[in-house]
């Protein structure tokens, strides 16, 4: 919330979404958010693709979304239990499609212009620092996504 408030006046007048533990978005809400945005930010627990239906995502056409930022892959005891219970009902192939590279490919196939995604598990604190760097580079300094990712790699 602090980061959103800090950058509220910089290109974010039309930000909308679900914040905090208000509720888990329905598939219809995910679709509405992705199809009506020019940039999409997911900052949450476990794998982004564990929250959306694969069949629903691959059928989407979202070319208006130029950038997806996935700050996922954060694990807690509760999220690990949820994902374990969910994964029991999935095939190995389905679980493989939820990995970062595969997720980026699927989003690209739906029309997303750029995807910035985590490659390994992290903590909320580390992702908060990444989000701060991303917002500062993209919104305050007007850097490209490539320049921004380069800054994150340093």
UniProtKB/TrEMBL annotation:
GO biological process: axoneme assembly; cilium movement involved in cell motility
Coiled-coil portions: none
PANTHER family according to UniProt: CILIA- AND FLAGELLA-ASSOCIATED PROTEIN 46 (PTHR15977)
Protein name in UniProt: CFA46 protein
Gene: Cfap46
């Amino acid at each position: 919330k602090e980061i959103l408030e800090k950058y509220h006046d910089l290109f974010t007048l039309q930000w909308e979404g679900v914040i905090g533990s208000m509720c888990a978005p329905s598939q219809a809400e995910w679709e509405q958010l992705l199809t009506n945005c020019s940039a999409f930010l997911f900052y949450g627990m476990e794998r982004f693709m564990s929250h959306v239906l694969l069949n629903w995502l691959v059928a989407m056409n979202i070319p208006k979304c130029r950038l997806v930022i996935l700050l996922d892959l954060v694990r807690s005891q509760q999220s690990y239990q949820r994902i374990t219970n969910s994964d029991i009902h999935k095939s190995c192939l389905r679980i493989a499609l939820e990995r970062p590279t595969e997720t980026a490919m699927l989003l690209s196939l739906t029309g997303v212009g750029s995807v910035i995604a985590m490659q390994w598990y992290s903590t909320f604190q580390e992702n908060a620092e990444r989000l701060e760097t991303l917002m500062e580079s993209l919104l305050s300094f007007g850097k490209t996504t490539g320049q921004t990712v380069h800054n994150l790699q340093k």
